[in-house]
């Protein structure tokens, strides 16, 4: 993010982990043709060129009077009212010299008219209208001024939001080619995990990653196949993984990737495919596993809930977006003044749960939650995003820090 050079020992820089994953992203899923009303959140599989000019013809941007600007004296003057055109009317009759027609927003300009004066600036007297000075083109939306027929409307690789769907509808496009949704199998690893609603025996905890990661995936447009908890045992892990790899495009698991774990997961994956364990220079986070199971990519994020969340947001998200066929996959950090001092120098890049707080003048600054443990989610619930402090970086209050908003990272 900053290009700072740090001695990371045997840790992998975050940016390298992301680019290694992107290099190995699978080709996007197959293409399907869908109706526009099913297209929200889907990724365009082909460039779309406009079949029409937008607007399709010259039309009025205001309710008022359409005229030929040369007919109006410099200081303004009177013209004869020659008719009325509303939105939806056809404007066939050409405008006669020294005439104006009453016109409404969105109505086509009559042939010959080149200017519109808003009605609140006009005075009516019987058959005549007084118009103030006007320049050619005032309040006219020209044919093709937004997009010309045949020009690029939207590029392949774009995820469709409400505004893109509106634009396509406005160009009269009813069906589009998108990638079919990416199918991701989600697995949790850990014998201590129980489901919310079930009683806990001593030593057990509730499975929070299953719920949190599933919602992240859905927010990114992925179809989730929830495999629940994989028992910490070789045969069970092998069975769950091999079923998942036959049903999904990609596997994501949490837990079981730290040093010192019981190694069932690792052995099961090695039997079915291959796996690399990476140690990434980020906090929270660090352990990450990447490999393949029966030819399907597999990513393992750490089990601590905040580490799982942040590793998924920062490292896994670009990979999953690329695997859906998206081109623009990296978040855009904002530079915002810090409302805190950060004096410790860390080897690992810090992703701190943070909030944007407006000061007296409305100027935003970044505040940190006092509790930054990788095991706890309360700070992430309080936060609007992540303050990013690079390896060895010190920050003084009012220095700019990079801020990644959850709103960006969760879509
Ligand atoms: P691990 O990465 O498996 O070593 O787990 C690290 C920590 O995260 C341990 O305290 C686990 O109990 C906890 N943990 C692992 N998986 C989950 C999960 N799905 N939900 C909540 N906590 C978990
Ligand atoms: Mg574990």
TrEMBL record:
Pathway(s) this gene product operates in, as recorded in its UniProt entry: Cofactor biosynthesis; molybdopterin biosynthesis
UniProt keyword Magnesium present: yes
Pfam families linked: MoCF_biosynth, MoeA_C, MoeA_N
Enzyme class: transferase
Superkingdom: Bacteria
Enzyme Commission identifier(s): 2.10.1.1
Cofactor(s) it depends on: Mg(2+)
This protein's record includes keyword Cell inner membrane: no
This protein's UniProt keywords: Magnesium, Metal-binding, Molybdenum, Molybdenum cofactor biosynthesis, Transferase
Ranges of residues in domain MoaB/Mog: 185-322
Catalysed conversion reaction: adenylyl-molybdopterin + molybdate = Mo-molybdopterin + AMP + H(+)
Family: Belongs to the MoeA family.
Known function: Catalyzes the insertion of molybdate into adenylated molybdopterin with the concomitant release of AMP.
NCBIfam families: Glp_gephyrin, molyb_syn
Protein's UniProt name: Molybdopterin molybdenumtransferase
Source organism per UniProt: Pseudomonas migulae
